[in-house]
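Troubleshooting log. The previous run stalled partway through. Resubmitting the same two chains, unchanged.
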Amino acid sequence: MTSAAPRTTGPDHLWSVEEHLEDILATVRPLEPLELNLLDAQGCVLVEDVTVPVSLPPFDNSSMDGYAVRVADVAGASEEFPAVLEVVGDVAAGAAEPLRVGPGQAARIMTGAPLPPGAETVVPVEWTDGGLGQGPVGGMRAHSAAPEAAFGHVRVYRPAEARAHVRERGSDVRAGERALTAGTVLGPPQIALLAAIGRGTVRVRPRPRVVVLSTGSELVQPDEELGPGRIYDSNSFALTAAARDAGAIAYRVGAVADDAETLRSTVEDQLVRADLLVTSGGVSVGAYDVVKEALSHVGDEEAAGSGVEFRRLAMQPGKPQGFGTIGPDHVPLLALPGNPVSAYVSFELFVRPAIRTLMGLTDVHRPRTRARLAAERAIGSPKGRRQFLRGRYADGEVTPVGGAGSHLVAALARADALIVVPEDTESVEPGTEVEVVLLG
Amino acid sequence: MTSAAPRTTGPDHLWSVEEHLEDILATVRPLEPLELNLLDAQGCVLVEDVTVPVSLPPFDNSSMDGYAVRVADVAGASEEFPAVLEVVGDVAAGAAEPLRVGPGQAARIMTGAPLPPGAETVVPVEWTDGGLGQGPVGGMRAHSAAPEAAFGHVRVYRPAEARAHVRERGSDVRAGERALTAGTVLGPPQIALLAAIGRGTVRVRPRPRVVVLSTGSELVQPDEELGPGRIYDSNSFALTAAARDAGAIAYRVGAVADDAETLRSTVEDQLVRADLLVTSGGVSVGAYDVVKEALSHVGDEEAAGSGVEFRRLAMQPGKPQGFGTIGPDHVPLLALPGNPVSAYVSFELFVRPAIRTLMGLTDVHRPRTRARLAAERAIGSPKGRRQFLRGRYADGEVTPVGGAGSHLVAALARADALIVVPEDTESVEPGTEVEVVLLG
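Second attempt completed without errors. Output:
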């Protein structure tokens, strides 16, 4: 029944947003790294410095389709007075045994193929007659259609400097250099580099597995019939989608009825696949607040870090919140309030940073900016509570959508920002500069 | 052997970046929509206007844990002179048959529970003695621990106006209103709304299935031994990761050797699971450019839209490109050059917009901005070709990383932007304002 940031709190303590967040981030630890296949590591954080084992490119190679020649043999060549060279064969990309190019000779060479011994430079095929004897050509004929073109003679119409159109060994990266440093997030270009230096697997922190469940005997699954007093379960869908969006592998368990024993056994069942548990509903001061009732008792309360603490936060929406760790492995659990807008705002403020901390990211928060409030009238806010209003942000202005009611899920679907109204502010006039959380 | 935007082009035509892109976007069509489960539709584009079938909330309900009472019964109530009411039972969330509240009576009510007939307002439990007779309480005792608290008497210490702490039926959305319009991208808040109004499935355009294969007899898979003249296959990894990042379901086939028949049969095999095919390598003017050789012949060349056209673009990197459709279903195919940086830049400019067009998105391009060039010396650029240099962007400034060489994959992994140097510019001085494509 403890949390990692001990403080002198009683049940009457009103937690600030920062205190609750600090407690979560002080408790949640980045997941243990493991070796993953390259494509399974996409979006993950590298935990090792990766050194280049072999220089890139690994050998001098041609950057053009053309002819590998000696500089002296093409010196002074022109369309009027071409150099005529004996073609000794093809050097294709992937060729194992390169030809040797002697004086007066040329090897037909393909982009990426190793510069053969004896050759000093490459002339692009467009500077030659391609072996056809009829002036400059646009390209080579396919080897399969004209195998004889690998031999015979080629006319070269322009000179070339030494090592023209040659990519030097190690000109990209050299063996022993650091390719990527620990802490790098692996996107497509980093995956390109790792593959290019021969790394098929890489040591990263995995994506966290997040189990999402909603609670409430009033909840009915979408597409089923809505009886009297019932509403549809939206939180289990929204929080699963949001957890994925934050980078997690999310499992939606669905809705659990308001029965402490059922909830407790469901949570215990799910622990095996959870790096983080997220619940919604049942955290307030009612007589049927099943999460509060059930989860204060899961796990060994004597063990450090076990047990979930339920709190009141100085915020709106999202006043009631639970946080702690459960089970023998001390899996962190965030218990969010049940109103869909409260649950979503709580996710953005607390669960998303927890997921990103598990991933080992350092940048765990949504970006914030300041914007001018575009509204027809002043917006009110309860004293002593930080309010997060839904808004639309564009070009330095933010416009509130919907009202302050925490059940306004229709307005939430039109919002792309949260407007932050501080605890000590009771009214914000139109035109005032406000802080805005950008929801992406 | 045609493409959708006919123009008077011969093999010598040098295509502009815009012409090639226009041709692709005029050919690629959004995928046919289908009905998907809500969580499978995350990130997809809605193709129907969704109307609210049932008002939200579907009934008047309590926004607090407290007591449902008549206004007159609590008028003038104070701590000194509390109103004492008979508690007739609990109204929990999900209760099927609400109690009736008569004069002098109260029903204990939970957040989200329907306001019972006869009740006019809700007093929060914190304004009462919770039935315990010992002054204001902080919350209710759990029903499972104290079932008797659903009955007895409650002291109410404060009056309440009519419909205080009551969320009215339809105050969120009303039946018949439009919840979401066609074209909306489904993120977590939109999924919340759809679930809340009872929609378990929704009609969207699916994620495109993108098959990625690289070509080249020089390619070795990472973690295998690198023979002479060989390099590691990085494009199949990078392009698969990039396709996913763009929103696709991507399948990495891996590397195919430079043999036209093998490539042709591999592509034909893959058509069954492809909404888009992406190849790398083998598109230039060499004698072993297998993609060019093989794919000009796939499909019925007589049929409209079949066949792949190979082009030279006025850009660097990425000069040789192929585009067309193949197979009986005219699956679009983009054939990218094989150099890793050329392939990646081509992906960003051409494949990503194609994927996002298949998804039905209207915003298909990476964002662009203008930035001041932060460099020690002028950067050169070939006349007549639009150059895309890799750079790092921050605070209105962009700094080139690595050089212009298209093989500099190590520098690419440090870049987060492309610096665009127009066709008619041969040199850009430090401090000049340049166009920048933001890759993040």
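Takeaways: The helical segments of chain A are 17-27, 71-74, 188-196, 235-245, 260-270, 290-295, 340-358, 409-412. Chain A has four domains: 14-31+207-358, 35-56+172-205, 61-167, 368-438.
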